[in-house]
């Protein structure tokens, strides 16, 4: 079978910045001309989920598959009945924003047969300033647990070490070093690291040896500039 | 200080409690507080502590009472409906004069409400909460760092005055991530022999911990002692923060916790437009900084209270201002959080 468009699965420990990366990746693909579907598979976090950008993305012409209706803002481990269909679609780029930790990745197990039937790329987002993935050992452990829970194989690591407004070159470089080493151990790709657009001034990106992905912040706290709509979880 | 890490408020307050020597934690899960109990479940066994998921909130708070009576640092946490269930036990702990820390990561109410951040438990928190004539000191954080720092502070206050202490956060503070760092050392527990079981001061000293005082004169005396302690707490423990108070502002905003974060951004935005607004953020909600709010309101044309509810703290603000100037209210129910832009236009409306 010929698949023209890719299935990109974004995983990580919770709080690693998966959702922010997945949402930005969707915008990147969309702007690159690829029709794109973002799938919210988060059954772990009750707040700050990719369903929060549904209205904005829909108006930009992207498709968001997420729980719908009254209980979409509940803390129920729900997934949309449209997920299965989205996973098998080959006419668009499909991005799965998976819940954090093995607990979140377990949802993928439900779809692993459909996923294994086609090409996919699973990415592990690594923030070494999250205590659960603060060093090489812990990153490797997290990777093993997520692979075990999902029944899928990680193919790429993306470094996303940051400390919000305290992000500096040292923090980002530390993340790149750990992700690079972990990628070597796991025998997977490492090429990208992320810096939030607001923090570019405090990071010397020229000194860092990897491909920079500039992230735009979508998951804003209500008091942060540019959070235009009344926030709800 | 250790290295700066990124944590949710729920995780940070749990970690700080463990670092402060808390080795006993009993709770029952509820959103948006569940990361706290999960963190304790993961970490307590690693430090030789006791984690127990009780069969109910009622069971958990009574385990807290038992552990406190044994003289150990003990904590529980929940979210609004779960805190309501705990109120009987909190009243017993207050009457028994035992130190314990309770965290409320509050959510939308009344009833089951929803899981969104709301400040609608203010009345319950600041008026004792359960039955009987008592209060509990209430701490209101507005950042993840402050949430973490309040765990050791709550234990200190609890032990100094032998009272349960409530940390009143909300879903936003529990769920959001911010950089946080933990000090290298924490103040140790006070010597528990003055309140705990098992420490006989004389051979015939029978230290009985109880909240049942059948003789009305004994209950009267016990309650009066409680209120003498409350006077001491009012003297020593009132905390608040002021912002943009040096300006020639004619308007004062009063807000706590998450609402104060939004209010602060609104004060900054208004300043850029040339409109000066002063802000006072109560950090202890009980005892309430009445004098500080009154002082801050002096010479103002208007005081505006901003809350994520339909108007609760505004009653304390009115008590503080005592008719010196009009007190207005901006609030929202349902767990819908304002944006600074909304607050800016509402404040503009109120002062025009």
Strand content of chain A: 15-25%
Number of domains of chain B: 2
Kindly provide the name of the CATH class of chain A.
Alpha Beta
**Number of distinct helices of chain A:** 6
- CATH level 3 topology of the largest domain in chain B: Rossmann fold
* SS elements, strand count of chain B: 14
Main sheet attributes: strand count, strand direction, barrel closure of chain B? 7 strands, mixed
Strand content of chain B: 15-25%
Summarize model confidence as the mean pLDDT of chain B: 96
Helix and strand topology:
The complex is a heterodimer of chains A (233) and B (352).
Chain A: E1 7-12, H1 18-31, E2 36-41, H2 54-60, E3 63-65, H3 83-88, E4 93-98, H4 101-116, E5 121-126, H5 136-150, E6 154-159, H6 169-186, E7 189-196, E8 211-215
Parallel strand pairs in A: 1-4, 1-5, 2-3, 2-4, 5-6, 6-7, 7-8
Chain B: E1 5-8, H1 9-19, E2 24-27, H2 34-43, E3 50-53, H3 57-69, E4 74-78, H4 80-96, E5 100-106, H5 122-126, E6 138-139, H6 144-161, E7 164-170, H7 171-175, E8 177-180, H8 216-236, E9 240-243, E10 251-254, H9 257-272, E11 277-282, E12 284-286, H10 290-297, E13 302-307, H11 313-321, E14 327-331, H12 340-351
Parallel strand pairs in B: 2-3, 2-4, 4-5, 5-7, 6-7, 10-11, 10-13, 13-14
Antiparallel strand pairs in B: 1-8, 6-12, 9-11
What does this molecule look like?
The complex is a heterodimer of chains A (233) and B (352). Chain A is of the alpha/beta class. Chain A has a single domain (7-215), classed as 3-Layer(aba) Sandwich (Rossmann fold). Chain A has helices at residues 18-31, 54-60, 83-88, 101-116, 136-150, 169-186; strands at 7-12, 36-41, 63-65, 93-98, 121-126, 154-159, 189-196, 211-215. Chain A has an eight-stranded parallel sheet, sandwiched between helices. The model of chain A has no long low-confidence stretch (mean pLDDT 91). Chain B is α/β, with parallel strands linked by helices. Chain B has two domains: 5-236, Thiamin diphosphate (ThDP)-binding fold, Pyr/PP domains (Rossmann fold); 240-351, Rossmann fold, CATH 3.40.50. Helices cover 41% and strands 18% of the residues of chain B. Chain B is built from twelve helices and 14 strands. Chain B has helices at 9-19, 34-43, 57-69, 80-96, 122-126, 144-161, 171-175, 216-236, 257-272, 290-297, 313-321, 340-351, and strands at residues 5-8, 24-27, 50-53, 74-78, 100-106, 138-139, 164-170, 177-180, 240-243, 251-254, 277-282, 284-286, 302-307, 327-331. In chain B, the strands form three sheets. Chain B has a seven-stranded mixed sheet with strand order 3-2-4-5-7-6-12, sandwiched between helices. In chain B, strands 9-11-10-13-14 form a five-stranded mixed sheet, with helices on both faces. Chain B has a two-stranded antiparallel sheet with strand order 1-8. In chain B, helix 3 (57-69) packs parallel to helix 4 (80-96) and helix 10 packs across helix 11. Chain B is globular. Chain A binds chain B through residues 15, 45-48, 73-75, 127, 129-131, 134, 162-166, 221-225, 227-233, and chain B through 4-8, 11, 31-32, 114-117, 171-172, 175-179, 258, 261-262, 264-265, 332, 335-342.
């Amino acid at each position: 079978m010929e698949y023209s468009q890719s299935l990109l699965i974004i995983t990580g420990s919770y709080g690693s910045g998966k959702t922010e990366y997945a949402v930005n990746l969707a915008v990147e693909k969309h702007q690159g001309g690829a029709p794109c579907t973002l799938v919210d598979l988060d059954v772990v976090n009750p707040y700050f989920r990719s369903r929060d950008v549904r209205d904005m993305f829909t108006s930009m012409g992207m498709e968001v598959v997420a729980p719908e209706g009254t209980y979409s803002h509940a803390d129920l481990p729900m997934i949309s009945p449209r997920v299965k269909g989205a996973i098998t679609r080959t006419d668009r780029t499909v991005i799965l924003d998976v819940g954090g930790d093995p607990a979140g990745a377990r949802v993928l197990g439900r779809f692993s047969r459909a996923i294994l039937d086609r090409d996919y790329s699973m990415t592990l987002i690594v923030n070494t300033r999250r205590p659960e993935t603060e060093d090489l050992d812990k990153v490797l452990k997290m990777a093993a647990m997520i692979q075990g829970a999902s029944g899928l194989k990680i193919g790429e690591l993306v470094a996303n070490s940051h400390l919000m407004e305290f992000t500096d070159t040292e923090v980002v470089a530390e993340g790149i070093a750990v992700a690079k080493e972990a990628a070597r151990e796991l025998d997977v790709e490492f090429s990208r690291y992320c810096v939030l657009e607001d923090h570019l001034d405090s990071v010397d990106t020229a000194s860092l040896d990897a491909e920079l992905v500039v992230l735009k912040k979508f998951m804003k706290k209500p008091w942060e500039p540019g959070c235009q709509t009344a926030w709800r979880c | 200080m250790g290295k700066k890490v990124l944590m949710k408020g729920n995780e940070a307050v749990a970690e700080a409690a463990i670092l402060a020597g808390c080795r006993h934690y009993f709770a029952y899960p509820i959103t948006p507080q569940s990361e706290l109990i999960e963190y304790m479940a993961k970490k307590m066994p690693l430090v030789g502590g006791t984690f127990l998921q009780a069969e109910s909130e009622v069971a958990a708070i009574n385990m807290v009472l038992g552990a406190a009576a044994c003289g150990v640092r003990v904590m529980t946490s929940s979210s609004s409906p779960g805190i309501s269930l705990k109120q009987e036990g909190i009243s017993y702990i207050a009457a028994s004069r035992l130190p314990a820390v309770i965290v409320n990561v509050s959510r939308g109410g009344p009833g089951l409400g929803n899981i969104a951040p709301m400040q609608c438990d203010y009345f319950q928190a600041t008026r004792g909460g359960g039955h009987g004539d008592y209060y509990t000191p209430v701490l209101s954080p507005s950042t993840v760092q402050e949430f973490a720092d309040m765990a050791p502070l709550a234990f200190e206050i609890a032990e100094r005055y032998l009272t349960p202490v409530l940390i009143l956060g909300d879903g936003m503070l529990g769920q959001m991530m911010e950089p946080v760092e933990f000090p290298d050392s924490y103040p140790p527990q006070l010597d528990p022999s003055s309140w705990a079981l098992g420490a006989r001061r004389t051979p015939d000293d029978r230290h009985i911990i109880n909240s049942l005082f059948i003789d009305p004169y004994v209950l009267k005396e016990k309650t009066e002692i409680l209120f003498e302690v409350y006077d001491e707490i009012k003297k020593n423990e009132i905390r608040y923060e002021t912002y943009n108070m040096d300006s020639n502002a004619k308007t004062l905003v009063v807000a706590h916790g998450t609402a104060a974060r939004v209010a602060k951004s609104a004060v900054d935005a208004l300043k850029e437009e040339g409109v000066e607004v002063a802000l006072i953020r109560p950090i202890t909600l009980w005892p309430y900084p009445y004098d500080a709010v009154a002082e801050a309101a002096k010479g103002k044309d208007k005081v505006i209270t901003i809350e994520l509810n339909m108007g609760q703290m505004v009653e304390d603000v009115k008590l503080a201002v005592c008719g010196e100037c009009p007190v207005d209210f901006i609030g929202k129910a349902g767990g819908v959080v304002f944006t600074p832009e909304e607050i800016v236009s509402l404040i503009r409306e109120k002062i025009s």
